[in-house]
Amino acid sequence: MKTIDFSHFIEKYLSGEMGEDEKKWFEKELEGNINLRSEVNLRKKTDQILKDQNIVSLRNKLSAIEKKRREVNIEVKNTRKPVYIRYAAVIAALAVIGSVMLFTGNKSGSDEVVSRLYKSYEPPTSQRSGQIAENADFTLALEFYNTNDFANAALFFSKVVESNPKDMHSVLLNGVSNFEDQKFPEAKLSFTTVIDDNNNLFIETARWYLALCYVKTDDTDKAIGQLTEIRDEGGIYSKDARKILRKLK
């Protein structure tokens, strides 16, 4: 199980930006985690030192930067190669890139289109507010999600789903978190669950993400089938589905 990165939470705690539930959770973590307490105390002392020694700190940083700049300039002068050698290296690199593109053209094309079109799912505000109020695990999961810590987001969304399997919004967010973390089998399972439920507001988004999973795992036939249905239904993802299909076929 991945260890939680507390850096973001420490900053929020020290700056007084935590909500009541999040603050209670963090202070509970402080009670049982001596390393975390040490880190928080160290941050407090560091902040105070920086306030007292801003000028000295700035001078030291500028001196270090200038020293590094001089070292880099010396290295560049000593390692400069003849022009014809540098051109030969560039040509060789271009040849390798060209051969890779020749053998992976279709896959690169579809992946490129997906990367260009893809926008991470943003939870609706009304849904988010209701779930935050009633579920501390959802609050933490959403915090991780919004800071792009998708592994821990999936961990806490799975806890929400475990306690309430009918919460299709959390099932979807668990799937998206695993998708972002490139755990496609787990993501597919979540999206399929949302689709099979057939009685929620997130089916269209789940079908879109399931299609992206098929593209990412080179399951071309299923990707084409799913994207064709999305295109033909004329929903919010139909135009993007059409663009990806052009690269897959």
Description:
With 249 residues, the protein is mainly alpha-helical. Helices cover 81% and strands 0% of the residues. The protein contains 14 helices and no strands. The chain has helices at 7-14, 20-32, 34-52, 54-79, 83-103, 105-117, 125-134, 136-146, 150-163, 168-180, 184-197, 203-216, 220-233, 238-248. α10 runs parallel beside α12 (203-216). The radius of gyration is 25 Å and the shape is globular.
Structural key phrases:
14 helices; 249 residues; 81% helix; mainly alpha
Short recap of the structure:
With 249 residues, the chain is mainly alpha-helical.
List the helices and strands and how they pair.
Layout: H1 7-14, H2 20-32, H3 34-52, H4 54-79, H5 83-103, H6 105-117, H7 125-134, H8 136-146, H9 150-163, H10 168-180, H11 184-197, H12 203-216, H13 220-233, H14 238-248
Helix pairs in contact: 6-14, 7-8, 8-9, 9-10, 10-11, 10-12, 11-12, 12-13, 13-14
User: How can the largest sheet be summarized?
Assistant: none
In DSSP terms (H or I, runs of 4 or more residues), the helix count works out at 14
Rg calc: 25 Å
Please count the beta strands (DSSP E, at least 2 residues each).
0
Tell me the series of helices and strands, N- to C-terminal.
Answer: HHHHHHHHHHHHHH
Classification by helices and strands: mainly alpha
Mean pLDDT: 78
Low-confidence stretches: 97-107
